[in-house]
Amino acid sequence: GNLIHPFIFNPDRPLQASNVKILSTSFERAIQSVQGVVGALLPEERNIEIDTRHTVLMLPDPQPRQSVEQEELENELAARLHLQEREDELLPLAVRVTQSLLPFLSHDARDASFGAIQHQNSSFSNTGDVEPLPWSQLNEITKCLSLRNMLPDTISDEDHEAVVQHAAWRFFESFRHPRLAYLGMNDMCKFMMDGFRNNVPLTICSAHDST
User: Fold this and answer.
1) How many angstroms separate the CA atoms of 166 and 163, rounded?
2) Cβ 61 vs Cβ 208: under 8 Å
3) For FRET with 108, which of 47, 52, 141, 179 sits at 20 to 30 Å CA-CA?
């Protein structure tokens, strides 16, 4: 019944850089995270290779998507009525949070691509309100600001939590679909299983919350 299992070192094959495989996406934050982990595990090592060549494989939602089929299926799933109705309900929150974030945004913030086409609601266009950022982008920005205690006063903790929860809900509403899960993650799972079969004592993968 013990849920915590210690890492057991084989005395005939001690943990060292030569028998540890380290993979990371090419994003700086993922590389820094795994550097911290490896620095604690192997403090005496000074030259450890971090393989960043497989970024696309390690993400279920890379940009651009891995196939046209995945992109089209994501857009189809995002257009479902129940999802659109919830987006409409939360539209005022998206508009208000986007407005509060404008001072933090660069001029090209809207050029970033964040996956499936987000349902376009025209109700804000006649009110003079700012066009809301995609939920995934609102999630990323508010999460970073919250961790640094830099959220503007106009965005409450409840607002931030609502953004995070809705962004997660949108993601799982799509990726719980069996075919989309296969398209997004099958290559990554095969890649990781191949690593296990090669009998490397320890493999560390540093990726993202979507992974």
Assistant:
1) 5
2) no
3) 52
Tokens representing residue 130 in the block:
């700012």
Q: Collapse the DSSP code of 204 into the 3-class scheme (helix H, G, I; strand E, B; otherwise coil) and give the result.
A: strand
How large is the average pLDDT for residues 126-148? 86
Strands 20-24 and 202-206: what pairing? parallel
**From the CB of residue 198, how many other CB atoms can be counted at a distance below 10 Å?**
9
Q: How far apart are CA 61 and CA 77, in angstroms?
A: 14
pLDDT digits (tens, 9 = 90+) for 16-63: 777 788 999 999 989 999 999 988 888 887 778 899 999 999 999 888
Vertex 110, ends 108 and 114: CA angle to 5°? 125
**In whole angstroms, what is the distance from residue 107 CA to residue 93 CA?**
22
Question: Is residue 2 very low, low, confident or very high in pLDDT (cuts 50, 70, 90)?
Answer: very low
Chain mean pLDDT for the chain: 85
Grouping H, G, I as helix, E, B as strand and the rest as coil, residue 24 is strand
Which letter, b or e, does each residue of 70-83 get, where b requires 16 or more Cβ atoms within 10 Å of its Cβ? bbebbeebbeeeeb
Q: Which DSSP state fits 120?
A: P
pLDDT tens digits for 93-132? Answer: 999 999 999 998 888 877 776 666 665 554 555 445 789 9
What six digits make up the tokens of 149?
Answer: 């205690």
In sequence order, which ranges of the chain are alpha helices (DSSP H)?
28-41, 68-78, 81-101, 135-147, 157-175, 178-197
Token code pair at residue 174: 């799509």
Cis before 92 (ω within 30): no
Whole-angstrom distance, CA of residue 48 vs CA of residue 193: 22
